[in-house]
Design brief:
This is Methylisocitrate lyase. By secondary structure, the protein is an alpha/beta fold. The protein is 45% helix and 11% strand. It has two domains: 6-241, TIM Barrel, CATH 3.20.20; 273-304, no CATH class.
Length: 305
Amino acid sequence: MTYLIADDLSLESAGRRFRKALNEPGILRLPGAHNGQAALQAKAAGFGALYLSGAAMTASMGLPDLGIITVDEVAFFIRQIARASGLPLLVDGDTGYGEALNVMHMVRVFEEAGAGAVHLEDQLLPKKCGHLNDKKIAPAADMAAKVAAAAGAARDLVVIARTDAAASEGLEGAIARAKLYVEAGADAVFPEALTSVEMFREVRAALPGVKLLANMTEFGRTPALTAQEFQELGYDMVIWPVSSLRVANKAQERLYAALARDGATTAMLPEMQTRQELYDTIGLGTFEALDRTIAASVAPDWAAV
């Protein structure tokens, strides 16, 4: 179960495993996992691949999603998720942390950390969440150069080109950019912040044979659609980028309010993961069994206390 047991380690690279999952029938569902614990819970629910959102990473650090964090900070998140779950992971690469050489460095670092895929976006720094207003878009040729650099640096990593141009250049502009990015070496395209089902259909029709990623973020500009509905529109992948963080944050907000009000956490016990449930999720017993000097832990029976 744990990444410390060699027999459980895949001999295939994360990139090859991600590509294999992408080529299987049906849409590839990629729930966001903002840390190792979330990754384990998503895996337990039956998901075979995951997504790591830049917005979720920065928010978990108490920062806005403005392209502030570094390659090494993202690699820390990649390692914990990849090690904990063993699942192929799509990572948000923002703008590539610079120009072509920076993008190549990012690809190598992410791949070595355990990422299976990365997406790059055609915004300029300071970048913004794709569903916010007045994004600054890079020249299409500059973005194409970054895509080519990423594809050239990757060993097995799947390279996905995201375009945020629909809001400023219209759908035709976004499609033209997507075609250029595919020519530059992108394995798939991520048309961000589409605002209607018809826009999703038009992109699909304009890019025959190209793998497409849909973003189903809450409280954004895209209408609420299910994975099945995106599949019927011809999309190959769908992400729910910040959902796990939103739910966790709301639960923590309720916890701190109850603790401030009551001076105790008693009211929140029914909403908590129990000690035993936590140990089962992280595989405490499996870790302990690796070292015979550690006594097997027995969780206290709190209900009997």
